[in-house]
Write a structure and sequence with these properties.
The structure is a homodimer of 439-residue chains. Chain A is α/β, with parallel strands linked by helices and 439 residues long. Chain A has helices spanning 59-76, 90-98, 109-117, 132-144, 157-169, 194-206, 228-251, 270-278, 301-312, 314-317, 413-416; strands at 18-19, 33-34, 54-58, 79-80, 104-106, 122-128, 149-154, 176-182, 211-218, 260-263, 285-289, 327-338, 341-344, 359-364, 373-374, 380-384, 389-392, 404-408, 421-425, 431-436. The two termini of chain A are 30 Å apart.
């Protein structure tokens, strides 16, 4: 029984949560503020109304990135189930669903619990269900809520047996939808060859009506070669391997009746996934991409990946606009102990450092002028400690203790998880809203 | 006006917070549980009562580590202001204060806000106060609560000016206590030589009675050399440099009257800090160590550091017991796609990876036997993704999807910040309690 269209959205309840000075970035001594009222406080980042470090999201860039991805999907005929693990922010999920996202992807059952609490109806778990609590919880939710639509990956006979047993034990009256996972030698999960994949697919079919094979999935984002060309050749071969698994399953009648889902495409190769899976010759297929990072982009790793998407894909290059970094981390110059070196008041607790170190973007001296200025070349983050960044600077750099420095990030996933709340800003760095995360 | 001894401890209010299935590690579909009642749920980790991944703290090891550090402090005559940034758990701060800690150290004013909310009375901010909000908040707290005792670092004339201006603006009737920070060339914050340090010290003195120089501080933990011997020689030289700064300030009468604080000692060289600062010849000195990691230790970086402490320090080696790892991360085997490779259900979102990758410690097959077994040599975590660990295993490894694997960590700070709550376990992995973190 689906909710009526005008039912209150559970995600809107997040607006009623209070932010207080236990939340990093909230000003000390200020009374708690209802999250939905953050935009009414007339706070401005450059006016130092909030303590730093502070992670902010540029509202207009989020909007533009959402529109760009919608154009890309429309042009390719694919759908997206954006990976929710990136932001774990139901308010951003709502924005993605409003942009047309088909589902939200999650990595774990804890993440699924967050989605379910906030009323997400269609969820793709991009992992095999493992463990008593995880399997039990998903089957309970499927029993409890007929409007809950769920998909999980599977790559093993053991996984089939555990899941089927729990579906039977709870008397689940509909099948658990499964996507057969393909993987590569030396890679992450997933069947390594078509024989293994077929064996798992047959085991699923043997568990009908408790389980249903509804598609094939793989994650190409970890594939590495000696060069860009080799990376891309290997990604292409992997996508073809997924298509071959799907063709095998179809030939043998192992899919449940109806649409077949083909899913791949993280945040680096979604153009290739869109193109090759659509061309796989499976007429009843729906191609589901899963990029988590397109919404905020970043200033390094995914910026480069997007440049490469546009080089590879005339379709992507021909679309209006493009993805831009929406996430910035603002810090203070904490110390300038040497002419060529300064220390910023942010570290591993505040910003991702797994793919690349953050990059200085701009600076502002409180009270001087109305906007931030770009930083001259030669300012480079060379080390992060837990709570500090070490920056190499030209001896003539104007920066001194108390100046503000904006950092661009690389890898949104490992920055979001360092913030319970992030503030939304406009171009003047007025704080226009806030989101909560649930990690 | 200090609280009466029997006033309710604000930290105990954390027991009244509810944990629910928005918190990673809480079982889906279970009613919310008051944090203080977690131990009454009769949950057991090995019985799969909680979803994995799950970070757990061994209660008895926490107790033993606290006792060991108390013995070390008693033997050396030093005090400790444990770095609260490690755990950001007021419940663990309470335990540390009960063990005799002199103060809690923090890195940022957001962390100070958490401490103040939970009633911590003596705080050492191991950074220079920078920024309108941070400086304003500390001075407001000092004005508001005469029982609040506060110390901050300082390494610049700009820092002196900004802090004095705000103390005057708010009419603060007592001085802000400052520790002059010494640093090393190429290192983090801190004056690089005695002349710089003296210039800052004189600037502080010139701002009496608004500011008071009460000690000298440095952080030796980032010092690196080509060998252990060179590291330690450089650490020793740095500690002597701090002592020399203190002697200079004393000679020139730059300290405020009374006790002088000498502070250094992170989690790797606290024995050297204790020994050398105590021997600095400043009779009115109190030596304040600041280790954050001793309470939980770890299985790699700080395990090795502690072995070295005992090699270096006959005093430490002669104490009963020793520091042991209290923190474990439990995961499932998510997939075994190749005989020599398996994937665990935990990644960068769950465990530190900045100093070393986690190490497999033990495994358990649900329902089989009553306790976990050690893992044979050859099981090695070789890569972490956001939500997965890649593990190289011997072909004859018994592990299969659904088995549980415990990982030991390296660097507690960057594991704690990935968990809103951590469960306490006894030796049988019964869940006996929980702590909240506030990052």
């Amino acid at each position: 029984m689906p909710d009526p269209m005008n039912a209150p959205d559970p995600i809107d309840a997040i607006d009623d949560l209070l932010l207080d000075d236990l939340v990093k970035g909230f000003p000390g001594g200020h009374a708690p503020v209802r999250l939905g009222d953050v935009g009414k406080q007339r706070w401005n980042l450059l006016r130092e109304d909030l303590p730093l470090p502070l992670a902010v999201l540029k509202r207009d860039v989020l909007d533009a990135n959402g529109r760009w991805m919608a154009r890309f999907l429309k042009a390719t005929g694919c759908v997206i189930a954006p990976h929710g693990k990136t932001t774990m922010s139901p308010q951003l999920f709502k924005r993605q669903l409003a942009d047309g996202a088909w589902a939200i992807t999650v990595a774990t059952v804890s993440q699924l619990q967050v989605c379910r609490r906030f009323g997400i109806k269609r969820i793709l778990l991009a992992n095999q269900l493992i463990g008593k609590q995880a399997i039990g919880e998903v089957v309970r939710e499927l029993v409890r809520d007929p409007a809950f639509e769920f998909y999980a990956l599977i790559d093993s006979i053991e996984g089939v047996a555990m899941l089927a047993a729990e579906a039977k034990r709870q008397g689940l009256a509909r099948p658990v939808n499964l996507l057969l996972e393909g993987g590569i030698e030396g890679g992450r999960a997933g069947c390594r060859n078509r024989e293994q994949a077929l064996a798992v697919a047959r085991a699923i079919k043997a568990e009908a009506p408790h389980l249903a094979l509804v598609g094939v999935e793989g994650f190409e984002g970890l594939i590495r070669g000696a060069s860009t060309a080799e990376n891309e050749a290997r990604v292409a071969a992997f996508l073809d391997f997924l298509a071959a698994i799907a063709a095998d399953c179809r030939r043998e009648g192992l899919f449940a009746p109806g649409r077949v889902i083909l899913s791949a495409g993280g945040s680096a190769y979604y153009d290739m996934a869109a193109e090759r899976l659509a061309a796989a010759g499976i007429s009843e297929a729906m191609v589901v991409l899963r990029s988590g990072c397109y919404l905020t982009q970043d200033s390094t790793a995914y910026r480069k990946a997007f440049e490469r998407v546009r080089e590879r894909s005339p379709l992507a290059a021909g679309l209006e606009g493009g993805l831009m970094p929406a996430l910035e981390l603002w810090t203070y110059v904490q110390s300038r102990p040497e002419p060529g070196r300064l220390i910023l008041s942010a570290g591993k607790r505040d910003v991702s450092y797994d793919l690349d170190l953050p990059v200085p973007l701009a600076w502002y001296r409180p009270g001087v002028g109305r906007s931030a200025s770009p930083l001259a070349p030669g300012h480079e983050v060379v080390q992060l400690n837990d709570q500090h960044a070490h920056v190499k600077v030209p001896a003539q750099s104007p920066l001194r203790p108390g100046d503000m420095v904006a950092l661009g990030i690389s890898h949104p996933c490992t920055t979001f998880d360092k913030w319970q709340a992030m503030f939304l800003v406009d171009d003047a760095y007025d704080i226009v809203g806030a989101i909560r995360t649930f990690f």
